[in-house]
Amino acid sequence: MTGSSNRRQGVVLSYLVFARKWRPQTFSDVIAQEHVTMTLRNAIESSRIGHAYLFSGPRGVGKTTTARILAKALNCINGPTANPCMECDACCRITAGGHLDVLEIDGASNRGIDEIRELREKARYAAAEGGYKIYIIDEVHMLTREAFNALLKILEEPPDKVIFIFATTEPRKVPATILSRTQRFDFRRIPSAIMAEYIGAEALKEGITVTSEALSLVCRASGGSMRDALSIMDQLVSFSGGNISGESVSGLLGLVESDLLAGICSAVLHSRGSVALDLVDQALVRGYSVEELIDALAGFLRNLLLSASGAENGISDLSDSEITLIRQTVAGISDVHVLNVLRLVAGAADQIRGGSFPRISLEGALMTSAKLGIAFGLADLPSVVEKVAVTAVKTPDSGEAAAGSRETDKAFRNVSAMESKTDTDSGNSSETEKENSYVRKVSGLFDMIPENR
Ligand SMILES: [Zn+2]
Questions:
Q1: 3-state class of 243 per DSSP?
Q2: Three-state SS across 87-141?
Q3: Which of 25-29, 75-79, 403-407 shows the lowest mean pLDDT across its residues?
């Protein structure tokens, strides 16, 4: 990135990166996950401590952090306590990551049966320091089937004072037999407003000022992951010193990914093909490959389609500010229009995999999609319907059409009626109209089909 800046100012930077320095140390420090921390506190206070916990949720929202706090709560000299003292030897060593009985295992790199068998052997021995022996297995869904089976054997007969905390971004990949033996806690994506407030306050403590525009850009770029937001903050401070403005964020990150995708889609949906191609160029300059870009576009369009058709429950894994962006992008656009664009883009994605001219396929699909807007934009819809109706009345078999045969039949007739109308008009109609006739042939049918069929 273009990190060499002369604007760097005299802020004394501590060595510790924000993600570590600002890591919550107690249950009450963990933000936006009160439904988890309250339950854990209550369980500890009423001595109902489970043998295995599953912390699921998107990355960077506090799963491992909460696991460490739980370990402190259990092994603190005053423990088990909902309020670990943070001063005793155990608390300090868990914070520093050097406690003998709190073992953090990365499930992605220790996924085989041998590692889990070894863990099983060691779990039999009592905790070296007399408290609880706690295994925190991160990305547990990465374990192999055999490893899960070995793990299941421990969970079926857990040794006394051994506790497992599994963290995962993909709970669906964890076998049901394991799930049923754990207490599950679902961590949520951190709402932008809460994240912005937190980062702003912490930054201020460090003598760093961040404008609200910059904060909202950082939060959007983070996609609801606090870890990502903090690592962007680290870069920003190195990039622009102690005064972070919206400009410094866009200077460092360029256009935030979701904004870029929204820009391209919006341009296409509003028939501004050249704007879309400019943005594509920017994206490729920034290091996107054509394949990555078209995949990201297809994903974004899918979300637009769900939003336009009122099925937002299907939009998963997005922060609230991204959902707002999706609603804004699709405002006033019909779901059928989005669907047609998505079809073209998805078709181009297939072409790109095997084709010799990926960029041309991408640009061609976007240009064609932008024409769809002219042919079937919501603003034009009444006149199109009018044309179709007029032509249908003039058509010899219009009586039959009025009698109302099957809807699909009608749709077919309407399209052909419209084509002939376009043909007769071509003499005096604009060039654009001519260009659109092909697009209509491709997409017109979808627009004619009643919505609830
Ligand atoms: Zn303590």
A1: strand
A2: CCHHHHHHHHCCCCCEEEEECCCCCCHHHHHHHHHHHCCCCCCCCCEEEEEECHH
A3: 403-407
Q: How far is the CA of 72 from the centre of ligand 1 (A)?
A: 7
Cα of 94 from ligand 1 centre, angstroms:
9
Q: Which domains does the chain carry?
A: 19-186 (3.40.50.300), 190-253 (1.10.8.60), 257-376 (1.20.272.10), 379-448 (no CATH)
Q: Above 50 in pLDDT, residue 191?
A: yes
Q: What digits encode the pLDDT tens for the residues 419-431?
A: 444 444 444 456 5
CA 83 to ligand 1 centroid distance, Å: 8
Question: What angle is formed at CA 426 by the lines to CA 424 and CA 397, rounded to 5 degrees?
Answer: 25
Q: Say how many Å lie between the CA of residue 27 and the centre of ligand 1.
A: 13
The radius of gyration computed from the CA coordinates of the chain, to the nearest angstrom, equals 29
74 C-alpha to ligand 1 centroid (Å)? 9
> 56 forms bridges with which residues in the sheet?
168, 186
The Å distance, Cα 66 to ligand 1 centre, comes to 16
What's the gap in Å between 292 CA and the centre of ligand 1?
Answer: 48
CA dihedral sign of residues 441, 442, 445, 448:
negative
Task: Quote the pLDDT of residue 21.
Answer: 82
Q: What is the pLDDT of residues 292-324, one digit of tens each?
A: 889 889 989 999 999 999 888 877 667 777 888
Decide if pLDDT at 165 tops 60: yes
Ligand 1 centre distance from Cα of residue 132 (Å): 13
Whole-number Å distance between alpha carbons of 52 and 133: 12
- Cα 244 to Cα 260: distance, rounded to the nearest angstrom: 21
How far apart are the CA of 85 and the centre of ligand 1, in A? 4
Distance between Cα 82 and ligand 1 center (Å): 11
What is residue 199's predicted lDDT score, i.e. its pLDDT?
Answer: 92
* Ligand 1 centroid distance, CA of 91 (Å): 4
Q: CA 65, CA 59: separation in Å to the nearest integer?
A: 11
The confidence band for 133, taking pLDDT boundaries of 50, 70 and 90, is: very high
Query: What residues does 286 pair with on adjacent strands?
Result: none
Residue 338 and residue 301 in contact, taking contact as beta carbons nearer than 8 Å:
yes
Amino acid at 52: A
